[in-house]
TrEMBL record:
Residues 2-68 form the HMA domain. GO terms for molecular function: copper ion binding. Pfam families: HMA. This is Copper chaperone CopZ. It comes from Fervidicola ferrireducens.
Length: 69
């Protein structure tokens, strides 16, 4: 498993937290995801043989949030 922390802007409430976590959890190979609204961070543990960082980033952006690259 690989652990990463992404800086995500646009999250401001519990709905945002749920939307981001749900989008990432829907991907294959995700072990854990936790959005920290106050910190503007999303922590993800995933299997890089099943899902790429680009797919995770795209899922967050498709949910309406910006990921700093």
């Amino acid at each position: 498993m690989l652990d990463i922390t992404l800086k995500v802007s646009g999250m401001s409430c519990m709905h945002c937290k749920h939307a981001v976590e749900s989008a990432v959890k829907a991907l294959p190979g995700i072990e854990k995801v936790e959005a920290k609204v106050e910190e503007g961070k999303v922590e993800v543990s995933f299997d890089p043989s099943k899902v790429s960082l680009e797919q995770i980033t795209s899922a967050i952006e498709d949910a309406g949030y910006d990921v700093e690259r």
